[in-house]
Amino acid sequence: MSWLVQPRLVNDPFSDPGVYLDFRYGRRAILFDLGDVNALSSRELLRVSHVFVSHTHVDHMTGFDRLFRLCLHRPYPLTLIGPPGFAAQVEHRIRGFTWNLLDENSVDFCLRAMDYDGTRLAKAAEFHARQAFARREIEPPVFPEGLAWMEDEFRIEAVALDHGIPSLAFALREVLQVNVWRGVLNELDLPPGPWLNEAKRAVRLGLPDDHPVDIPGRTRIRLGDLKGSALRIAPGQAVAYVTDAAPVPENRAKILQLAREADQLFIEAVFLERDRPLALASLHLTAREAGSIAHEAGVKFVTPFHHSARYLSEPDVLREELFESFRATDREVMPA
Ligand SMILES: [Zn+2]
Ligand SMILES: [Zn+2]
Hints:
The protein is of the alpha/beta class. The chain is 25% helix and 28% strand.
């Protein structure tokens, strides 16, 4: 099994939340949340094409300045997606700097900021370096309901959780995993080459079996014939990211849907169950609830983060409580 992305926490679980999703073929990455990103190298940050921000509490957004500054000399755009009001907040952040040194000879770095309202992208703005980052309204891309982004290979599902304010949770879902059997390719006397990428793309797009695939220097072959032989098709990878959510049934239901059967779930585990009053007051999940959600969602791997500093002297207790609850077979004992 080869993954589309390699996801990992940006920081240790007591520091700012965030997940870096590195694409297998390099040159590209996605970030969930934008808190302290000093643990990432400049090279890693320059690969980031899209950032999905849960909400703009300071521990989820302070990395903006470093990322933005690094990208100033980058010719390709950076897209940031966050909750309602996000594009305006990004604009205010940019307006806090002075841009008199930019002109028509500058690299025309373009920043895009978009609001996701819980079901769709509702607003979008563009900021170009050559226009001193003046705000320009653009039409937000139109995706099916519940998607914050969509490309040929993957989609980003998003839901708005209750954290006193909307806090977005995200799941990257690879459309389909399409791999090539090299041995079969040789047996069929078919040459490797860029045509295989076109064939894989046709499979992901769900094109019909009689769709013709051109092989340079050869005859055409039916997509259906490749699917039955040289192409191996499997369900795609799913990675979910859930943070800053009140421990209430409405949030639980939304998270279960978002994280269903995910290969990997990154989920906040802020307080121990014994401190549930604190979790309720600050609108965060307990470790036990996070573990039981991961269990019920049927995820393969779960990674806890966003630990409260009150447990620094016993750093493993939150992880232990989460895994105990995740592994439990008797769901009846879990909090509803
Ligand atoms: Zn928060
Ligand atoms: Zn937070």
